[in-house]
From TrEMBL:
PANTHER family: ATP-DEPENDENT 6-PHOSPHOFRUCTOKINASE, PHOSPHOFRUCTOKINASE. It catalyses: beta-D-fructose 6-phosphate + ATP = beta-D-fructose 1,6-bisphosphate + ADP + H(+). This is ATP-dependent 6-phosphofructokinase. Keywords: Allosteric enzyme, ATP-binding, Cytoplasm, Glycolysis, Kinase, Magnesium, Metal-binding, Nucleotide-binding, Transferase. Pathway: Carbohydrate degradation; glycolysis; D-glyceraldehyde 3-phosphate and glycerone phosphate from D-glucose: step 3/4. GO terms for cellular component: 6-phosphofructokinase complex; membrane. Mg(2+) binds at D119.
């Protein structure tokens, strides 16, 4: 059978020149993308040029276009904004300006452009590409370039990466900078909440998003805001009264603060702006509440990029170079983007046209179309927000007479509380009576089960750890008592939120169905573990928060190492036998190596790493960072590696070690974990409701099929319910990890960006796809 695998070794960039520029508004993570393009380009043998100050630098030429070296992108990863500068450029909009830009590129042999910017920047790049041959003809006629030069540089290849904090580009789930902007917003909201509670205040927050409400919508989801106003979904007439009623109801429920989030482009049904001052005056006039306005402004663009943005930008940067290497003269300009957890390439102009269609729909007051055109991720965020924010009065609720219990199992993970809040509120909206179980299955067998109401979970999204309490105890030990408690409280469905122990628990309960009818009920598990070691899902609630904690610490350590010079740090991460945190943390922190259990290593590998660092110390980057997963090897412990490096590096570098420990489990959940936990929990409750209706016969619930005990996980592009019994074969129970793990494909990436020669399978890299109109089939996917 022929092997269709494609390896990076077979793709050569020799003789090619790549120009990289950042244009338009800056976004955190742009530097990580530039770094990845430069290093990947150099790795494949191409020359890479920085084009400083965006299109202006391309038009002006001279020192604005400089060849990049490996060291020139060192220490960029953790810096916000764009180091190579960005500028709005009027000259490039003129034919004369584009002619000068073409001349500057041809003189340096650049026929491959990687443009990092928003839709305006990418549209400009495409126009430039379409005009390219005509521009070269003009330059030949004016005698500025030779006919031969025109032939050699006859085709211009363009690949775009979307850098925009607004996430306003169709075709991609997340643009570079959006996650970091959400971090800034949530940091501010969390800080405001404490002062607002002290004085029983209402806060009106304005966030960026002139034409797109993504930041407002997701930050409202992530902090449990009382009201959100976005341009894509203007409130219906009479919204002022509805909003004031909601605020006063919340105060009557003893909630001491109100948060209203407004996108700067928020409008009413008549396309008139809704400003923060208008809302403040409304609240003061109608309710007399002490109200304050905070406009976040450029704070959202600033600060260090989040772990998510660094990984996204690094993956996209490498993908962009691959796309340029594979481009032929007929290849249209494309955008590299992320769909779910999958890298994709999409025709640039299809994405731009769809993005422009959103604005057209909004101008024509076709707001439902605008939401749909924004894509599945946006639409699902909006639907989840609607589900959770508007509390219905009891008479409006369907009454199901079903009891659903929610519990946390295993180690704490940030985002668990957001998932519990979402489950409780969606469950109540669906008409169920919700029960909270304290301390996992240990509390279950002792009867620590009580009804939990809508107001009981207020303010839970931003809380770290597990408010319900969680234990690692598995149910098999106390199966009789648990069955008895299921009977006493008449529990008709279970939602288990946790890590590997939660997965094992569901398998044990499934197994016990033959002996106890009490467990013949719908059961769903949500993966929540910092280790990200559960089969059936690419991502787990809590892993993103943990990665950010690791990356933040690594940044500080790198800063310390840069100051002292010639110093290497060995950092131990958690994760059990799963190397996810060590590998992805290393990619996001720009580490030199990461030792993990899944990729066995020996003394020769350690020796080679020491030699690599010795060579590195001869350059201008005189520091090293090495991550080690806690269980990567029984004998090559953190102490052993530290002592080996110290001995072998004598006279060249000195060594320090740092065990990160439980700080990786704590802290306030990241916006990603809050949002992910909230969305998958809402989806799980809707699945439970559906199963309860299907399995209700003759007055009681009976579910004993495989598909009534499921894990809900993200698989590449979609959220999927998978029977736990079918995931059993995919799991290594001895080491508590899945047998196949997607993130192992990121390891060669980490090594390439750290200057190691390695084999990299690129058969999975994105093939050019077409954007799906309205994505109607896809909408339920995430």
């Amino acid at each position: 059978m022929p092997d269709n695998k494609k390896f990076i070794e077979n793709l050569s960039g020799t003789g090619k020149c790549i120009g990289v520029l950042t244009s338009g508004g800056d976004a955190q993570g742009m530097n990580a993308a530039v770094r990845a393009v430069v290093r990947m380009g150099i790795y494949v043998g191409a020359k890479v040029y920085f084009i400083h100050e965006g299109y202006q630098g391309m038009v002006d030429g001279g020192d604005n276009i400089k060849e990049a070296s490996w060291e020139s992108v060192s220490s960029m990863l953790q810096v916000g904004g764009t180091v190579i500068g960005s500028a709005r450029c009027k000259d490039f909009r003129t034919h004369e300006g584009r002619l000068r830009a073409a001349l500057n590129l041809v003189q340096r042999g650049i026929t491959n452009l990687c443009v990092i910017g928003g839709d305006g920047s990418l549209t400009g790049a495409n126009l430039f590409r379409e005009e390219w041959s005509g521009l070269l003809d003009e330059l030949v006629q004016s005698g500025e370039i030779s006919e031969e030069a025109s032939q050699i540089h006859s085709a211009l290849h363009i690949v775009g990466m979307v850098g925009s904090i607004d996430n306003d580009f169709c075709g991609t789930d997340m643009t570079i900078g959006t996650d970091s902007a959400l971090h800034r917003i949530i940091e501010v909201v969390d800080a405001i909440m404490t002062t607002a509670q002290s004085h029983q205040r209402t806060f009106v927050l304005e966030v960026m998003g002139r034409h797109c409400g993504y930041l407002a919508l997701v930050s409202a989801l992530a902090c449990g805001a009382d009201w959100v106003l976005i341009p894509e979904m203007p409130p219906k007439d009479g919204w002022e009264e509805q909003m004031c009623n909601k605020l006063s109801e919340n105060r009557a429920d003893k909630k001491r603060l109100n948060i209203i989030i407004v996108a700067e482009g928020a409008i009413d049904q008549n396309n008139k702006p809704i400003t923060t001052e208008l809302i403040k005056d409304l609240v003061v006039r109608c309710l007399g509440f002490d109200t304050r306005v905070t406009i976040l402004g450029h704070v959202q663009r600033g600060g260090t990029p989040s772990a998510f943005d660094r990984i996204l930008a690094s993956r996209m940067g490498v993908e962009a170079v691959l796309a340029l290497l594979e481009a032929s003269p007929g290849t249209p300009a494309c955008v590299v983007s992320l769909c779910g957890n999958q890298a994709v390439r999409l025709p640039l102009m299809e994405c731009v046209q769809m993005t422009q269609e959103v604005q057209k729909a909004m101008d024509e007051k076709r707001f439902e179309d605008a939401v749909r055109l924004r894509g599945r991720s946006f639409e699902n965020n909006l639907n989840t927000y609607k589900l959770l924010s508007h509390r219905k009065i009891d008479s409006e609720l369907p009454h199901s007479s079903f009891n659903v219990a929610v519990l946390n199992v295993g180690a704490p993970a940030a985002g668990m509380n957001a998932a519990v809040r979402s489950a409780v509120r969606v469950g109540i909206t669906e008409g169920h009576t919700m029960f909270a179980v304290s301390d996992g299955f240990e509390g279950f067998c002792k009867g620590q089960i009580k009804e939990i109401k809508w107001g009981d979970v207020g303010g839970w999204t931003g809380q770290g750890g597990s408010l319900l309490g969680t234990k690692r105890t598995l149910p098999a030990k106390h199966i009789d008592k648990i069955a008895e408690q299921m009977r006493i409280h008449n529990i008709n469905a279970l939602l288990v939120i946790g890590g590997f122990e939660a997965f094992e628990s569901l398998l044990q309960l499934f197994d016990a169905r033959s002996r106890y009818e009490e467990f013949c009920v719908p059961m769903c598990m949500l993966p929540a573990t910092i280790s990200n070691n559960v089969s059936g899902t690419d991502l787990s609630i809590g892993a993103d928060t943990s990665l950010n904690a690791i990356v933040e610490t690594c940044d500080r350590i790198k800063q310390s190492a840069s100051g002292t010079k010639r110093r290497v740090f060995i950092i131990e991460t958690m994760g059990g036998y799963c190397g996810y945190l060590a590998t992805v943390g290393a990619l996001a922190a720009g580490a030199d190596a990461a030792y993990i259990y899944e990729e066995p290593f020996d003394i020769r590998d350690l020796q080679s790493n020491v030699e690599h660092l010795t060579e590195k110390m001869k350059t201008s980057i005189q520091r090293g960072l090495v991550l080690r997963n806690e269980n990567c090897s029984v004998n090559y412990t953190t102490d052993f590696i530290y002592q080996l490096y110290s001995e072998e590096g004598k006279g060249v570098f000195d060594c320090r070690k740092n065990v990160l420990g439980h700080m990786q489990q704590g802290g306030s959940p990241s916006p990603f974990d809050r949002n992910f936990g909230t969305k998958i929990s809402a989806k799980a409750m809707q699945w439970i409701s559906k199963k309860l209706k299907e399995c209700y016969r003759e007055g009681h619930v009976f579910a004993n099929t495989e598909d009534s005990a499921c894990l809900l996980g993200m698989r590449r592009r979609a959220l999927v319910f998978q029977p736990v019994i079918q995931l059993k074969d995919e799991t290594d129970f001895v080491h508590r990890i899945p047998k196949e793990q997607w993130w192992l494909r990121l390891r060669p990436l980490m090594k390439i960006l750290a200057k190691y020669k390695t084999s990299y399978d690129v058969s999975d890299s994105g093939q050019l796809e077409h954007i799906i109109r309205l994505r109607t089939k896809d909408i339920s996917a995430i």
